[in-house]
Amino acid sequence: MTHDPERRRDLAHVGPLELYTPVLEESRDFFVNQLALREVGRDADSIYLHTWDDYLSWTIRLIRRERAGVGTTFVRAASAAAFERVRAEIELAGLVDGIDAGVRGLGEVVRFHDPDGHPMGLYWEAGWYVPDETDTPALKNQAAAFPGRGANVRRLDHVNYLTKDVPGTSRFLADVLGARCTERIVTDEGEDAAIWFNLGNKSYDLVYTQDWTGANGRLHHLAFATDTREDILRAADVMLEAGIHIETGPHKHAIQQTFFLYVWEPGGNRIELCNAGARLILAPDWKTISWTAAERAKGQAWGLKTIDTFHTHGTPVLPVE
Amino acid sequence: MTHDPERRRDLAHVGPLELYTPVLEESRDFFVNQLALREVGRDADSIYLHTWDDYLSWTIRLIRRERAGVGTTFVRAASAAAFERVRAEIELAGLVDGIDAGVRGLGEVVRFHDPDGHPMGLYWEAGWYVPDETDTPALKNQAAAFPGRGANVRRLDHVNYLTKDVPGTSRFLADVLGARCTERIVTDEGEDAAIWFNLGNKSYDLVYTQDWTGANGRLHHLAFATDTREDILRAADVMLEAGIHIETGPHKHAIQQTFFLYVWEPGGNRIELCNAGARLILAPDWKTISWTAAERAKGQAWGLKTIDTFHTHGTPVLPVE
Amino acid sequence: MTHDPERRRDLAHVGPLELYTPVLEESRDFFVNQLALREVGRDADSIYLHTWDDYLSWTIRLIRRERAGVGTTFVRAASAAAFERVRAEIELAGLVDGIDAGVRGLGEVVRFHDPDGHPMGLYWEAGWYVPDETDTPALKNQAAAFPGRGANVRRLDHVNYLTKDVPGTSRFLADVLGARCTERIVTDEGEDAAIWFNLGNKSYDLVYTQDWTGANGRLHHLAFATDTREDILRAADVMLEAGIHIETGPHKHAIQQTFFLYVWEPGGNRIELCNAGARLILAPDWKTISWTAAERAKGQAWGLKTIDTFHTHGTPVLPVE
Amino acid sequence: MTHDPERRRDLAHVGPLELYTPVLEESRDFFVNQLALREVGRDADSIYLHTWDDYLSWTIRLIRRERAGVGTTFVRAASAAAFERVRAEIELAGLVDGIDAGVRGLGEVVRFHDPDGHPMGLYWEAGWYVPDETDTPALKNQAAAFPGRGANVRRLDHVNYLTKDVPGTSRFLADVLGARCTERIVTDEGEDAAIWFNLGNKSYDLVYTQDWTGANGRLHHLAFATDTREDILRAADVMLEAGIHIETGPHKHAIQQTFFLYVWEPGGNRIELCNAGARLILAPDWKTISWTAAERAKGQAWGLKTIDTFHTHGTPVLPVE
């Protein structure tokens, strides 16, 4: 499966994004103290947080909900014309849920959902982050001051959703959003069990994994990028001291070769810290890498067996039948 | 100066590239032993080398010449249609030098030159690297085996050319190649002294700096990307042991925030090892960062004064009048 | 259990050391290519190897044997007088096996054995490493040139032996060798299951773990120190490409907080690459840290469960009853 | 000049230490926010600070003074008997200033001074650090919780004093304190210009450099150890954002091969962050490394020229004649 280089790249990147948590303040403290995000706004039931090198006015919004999970993922169009083209594709697919002009820091948002029901929002116009006197960076080519705290995550990296229909979601990503599949896991029956799609040169931005429960709209994890692998090793010590549950890592994935650490934030959502080194997908005709069940069974790059909860924990957490 | 998001991104990346050297074998040994490239071919007067994660069949070609310098820089179009669009722009600009179907590993190449005379080649069709039994990677999403040697450079990153006409070159990059200016140095007279342009999400791929000698077609440096800053610290020890001239670094640039090491390969060409951490330009409407002469005078990010030879050494080396 | 500061420190360090392997050349290639040791001598059935910053003339000697395992561990006295004092203690304990003046690079060696039967050699006089023109270091305060290859291990760090009598070995280390116990694992019955002893400021040099088979004289692992944790992460990629069995890691031990990677060299011996950061035992009255079985059950520092083979693999490998 | 292995090692380590500053609170904020020390006590004119892995109850005491500089350096004896032996040597040398039983956290202190007049204190009895509920470490073999903030310095590493009499100070270190010279800079006239002495396995603990002003009792710098070189690279970004003056680095010294960063704390004292990797002096008969003026002129390990202020700035700052 080779990428179609002629297909226009109409989406720039993923973000900002909404995350649900039953313990709003505890989750806020985790993102601020352990990941080094900054609180940039709040209302009755939500808090807006910003990573130090995100050009947008906010990176994630924590929303108080009874159960953890992912809210709306906003995706930015690559241009005003691209916004109209993707909007047309979404309408054609009958996935539009409405238009919203009231999202903080963004212009008009076309609200829609993926085939699995995850809420999404397409936008073009966006306000840029304006630091105040306490977080003005020393270097003008950076969004905000370097925090030098905890994991120091630079920016949002990707979202990994659970879905009960991987093939359908794959068609949606390719045909409606124009994303490209860089890697995938194929079952012995020849069906996709997990798919990694990218929008630009990053090796992936949107990931979908088969939901073992058959439920809809759940989250596997949300990931933030760090500058170095050392940031991730340090983060592990930071999580240990803070009593944050470390699920697995630091280690390296064979798939996409990402150096990773997975923790569960206080609300229960799985958060990944990731570093890709200098790896980028520069080939416009990249050939999708397919991993077999046997290859997947080998575990991570350096032989670590994949931890069981990786296949049993998602948010919202569902009652076991 | 804000990027024009509507301008189509018709170039995928820079590379492969030709480099001239008066000491072919010594230069080859440097790239193989200290940077960890692999020799993949040679003819009477040149040697083809490959970095371990370049999907193309070769990364740089060392050519025996009386004087060091840069040869042809090949740039890959983003698609077959993009190839035709850029080809038309180059013809319109009257910069075409001819068509070449004989470049190793590439399909038809449109040979042209930038306004300063640096030879370039536009291509779309390209053969991919095929490892042999001695460098087949353990992970199938990697071009070749990880060498674990010296600086372990992953891939070609960017080229920094010297030019006597920065403004003219800037128009060429924007209007003919459709590249985007992410950062620049502006003189007190308001003229560009150096410009950094990118083609995708990397913060820069092509850089032009004012040539203090007024000569044409010279090279400031060629850069390779490493996965970590630690690779660059280790590289410094490797260069020290090998007796390679370390010009400056390891340190961090304020401009583009690149962590760097500059050395002179045996042939005299300046080679940079660089690491950008997780920094990428994801904003489709990125606003060009302008640095003043005063800001530049501050030196590098952490206060290191820019070394004099950085403003006096280029290749080919010109006789001092 | 607090250290006795009055007890004189009569041993300087562990090393050199002999290692048995059934595949001499394959083991040699592993230590040279993946760990960056240098071959400095050989005879009919053995090869001498040197780490780049070992002041001694050789670091380990690989000896061809039918079965893998540890040979003689040589320990250097802190002075000529210290040599006599320790020699007297060994004689008093009735552990002397003889005197040997024929060990390469060492002066007179008092051969003895620990209570479990591991052969050891006490020496004072030693020749220093003399680099030749191919490995003379650029910096005169270093034993040999920095190899910049694979794991780049700087020096031998410690030896972890298996023993059927931990308490007896503990008394031997304290009373005969004058070593100090920095950390230990205590069973619910109050008995030591594993003990870490040091000779100077390193947190440990000699480790003994209960041998689950009840056998004598076996090896759990031999460890080499790297300068950074990044060296160990890179080493994991190097081992992966070389097809070397990675048993566990890279990860961090709770005990001693060592960042580690365990691999099995071609001969079957377990080799650890370790980094302690800036951690040293500077307190002369250090209080031994005791870990309970419950604490040990928590696994490694960041929650990784200890791999089963860590409790079932030792060399020589014994036939399962 | 070879070490005398028979000379007993009667001093365990350097620290705690007093530092003078004209801006007490600003200096305190630097050590707490940028270096990650913790405030553990204060009185009218001083503040006690602790590094996260110092087993002692405090690491440095900031004292308000009109001018910056170093106060008393306390050195711990290796045992009660060692305390008496060194005390006798100090008395024999006629350097005793008095006995003090009132130093926070320490037992009886023999106050004395080096030949240059720097105040010192010898002690044996010392109280250990007791973390409270807010900084109890997750791992029991660590003094306090890992802060994960700024430079995260683990412990005090060494002190570099300025002296007008290097040879006299050298005799004092060797004959009175029993320290050993690991490296030195020798002038063309054959005199020591700078000397590095160690007490245990660290490559150095006490350093004296010729004071170009001919003054007495001044400080060149105080150094703290970090676990990795990455901690030091990050620290540079942290200092940049905090507006702390970065004098030189990050870079690597040829002498002792220390990876370093030098900054001036708000009070004016030069502070070094250092990392030695896995380098230790394990040879009991280490041969002192002598560097010539010519070798020193080469600059740092990777060719960086030594910055001028390194030879002109010391504390207290003296009026230029």
TrEMBL record, chains A, B, C, D:
<keyword id="KW-0223">Dioxygenase</keyword>
<feature type="domain" description="VOC">
    <location>
        <begin position="13"/>
        <end position="125"/>
    </location>
</feature>
<keyword id="KW-0560">Oxidoreductase</keyword>
<protein>
    <submittedName>
        <fullName>Catechol 2,3-dioxygenase</fullName>
    </submittedName>
</protein>
<dbReference type="Pfam" id="PF00903">
    <property type="entry name" value="Glyoxalase"/>
</dbReference>
<dbReference type="InterPro" id="IPR050383">
    <property type="entry name" value="GlyoxalaseI/FosfomycinResist"/>
</dbReference>
<feature type="domain" description="VOC">
    <location>
        <begin position="155"/>
        <end position="276"/>
    </location>
</feature>
<dbReference type="InterPro" id="IPR029068">
    <property type="entry name" value="Glyas_Bleomycin-R_OHBP_Dase"/>
</dbReference>
<dbReference type="InterPro" id="IPR037523">
    <property type="entry name" value="VOC_core"/>
</dbReference>
<dbReference type="InterPro" id="IPR004360">
    <property type="entry name" value="Glyas_Fos-R_dOase_dom"/>
</dbReference>
<dbReference type="GO" id="GO:0051213">
    <property type="term" value="F:dioxygenase activity"/>
</dbReference>
